[in-house]
Amino acid sequence: MVVGEHDVLSGSGTSLSTNTNQALSNVVVANFTDTDLVTPASDLVATINWGDGTTTTGTVTGANGSFAVSGSHTYTSAGTDTITTTLSDRSPGTATATATGSATVGILLGDANGDGVQDNGETTLSVPWAAAQQLLNASDTNPDVRISMMKQALRAQLNIDAGEADPGLFPGQPAGHDLITEAVDWLRGLSPFTYAPTSANVDINHDGILQTGATSIGNDYNTVTQAFTTPPQKATMNAWLQYVDTIHSPPQSGDLLINGQDLRNALAAFNANQLVTLMAGTQVGWNNGSVTTDIQPNTANTFWNVLADNHVIAAPHVS
């Protein structure tokens, strides 16, 4: 901090939580005090370094020696970023101060079009970065199959956030029968993945937020044990093995049936660039490493046909 003329500025940053591609609008990033109680906000200028390579001009509000700096920004990558806010007197004043805050950017799982918000037809689960980071690095051999499902679903969401089209989401159409939405439906134990005696639900209070913390009490995921707080779902249980119809209820003749294992394998194929979307998301096909084959319209659930054609899933049909 540098003292200029007769006033001294000092400040402290705030901590923000958001999701990838979610717009932050006019959020307060820092608060400052000025020993000169008559300095108006119009005499001060602020800059905000958001920590991801972007710097913008901040808006200064307040009076009587107490000021807030706010700004708008959208983070495009998950993680933790340091926000550095600088407040200075306008020339000829020379007083200046810097405040450091942070932004924790989580993942909005189920954000089918990658716009950072829950849109019509989307089923979402907001995953804080601390838990997301652990789950992305988790072992696929964990006996709780929800860990592997969550790992592949988070990777798929990051690919969608980066611009990959979601299999089953035809441009301009609402989500519902697309890959990432069906993955979240499974993880939240929603129809058609309502298995007996227990579903795979990781969202205990059904609020669409993965509550996380260093204890199992009141949380969905324990960041110390790196485990969900509800009893594990094993590969021998119905949530993994029982086939369901994701298109119709009750099932109709000719529909494909899938289970939890199929869903995890579909996510893995998408993440491995085998199940691919083409032509601005209007088509879906199979990439065999040298050429894309089995190209079909990327309409609801068509990707399951591609996966069945290429023997990724068994996909029995309703007789």
Explain what the structure shows:
The chain has 319 residues and is an alpha+beta fold. The protein has helices spanning 129-136, 145-161, 179-187, 238-241, 260-271, 302-309; strands at 9-13, 15-19, 23-34, 44-49, 55-63, 66-74, 79-89, 96-109, 125-127, 212-213, 221-222, 227-228, 244-245, 257-258, 275-278, 283-287, 292-297. Strand 11 and strand 12 form a beta hairpin. Helix 2 runs antiparallel to helix 3 (179-187), helix 2 runs parallel beside helix 5 and helix 3 (179-187) crosses helix 5.
List descriptors:
three-stranded mixed beta sheet; elongated; PKD_dom; nine-stranded mixed beta sheet; Immunoglobulin-like; 319 residues; alpha+beta; 2 domains
What is the gist of this entry?
This protein is of the alpha+beta class and 319 residues long.
Output the structural class: alpha+beta
Order of helices and strands: EEEEEEEEEHHHEEEHEEHEEEH
> What integer is the average pLDDT?
95
Number of strands: 17
Question: Into which percent range does the helicity of residues fall?
Answer: 10-25%
Number of helices: 6
Q: State the separation between the terminal residues, measured CA to CA.
A: 75 Å
Protein name: PKD domain-containing protein
InterPro entries: PKD_dom
Domain PKD: 49-100
List the helices and strands and how they pair.
Elements: E1 9-13, E2 15-19, E3 23-34, E4 44-49, E5 55-63, E6 66-74, E7 79-89, E8 96-109, E9 125-127, H1 129-136, H2 145-161, H3 179-187, E10 212-213, E11 221-222, E12 227-228, H4 238-241, E13 244-245, E14 257-258, H5 260-271, E15 275-278, E16 283-287, E17 292-297, H6 302-309
Parallel strand pairs: 2-8, 10-11
Antiparallel strand pairs: 1-3, 3-6, 4-5, 4-7, 5-6, 7-8, 8-9, 11-12, 13-14, 15-16, 16-17
Helix pairs in contact: 2-3, 2-5, 3-5
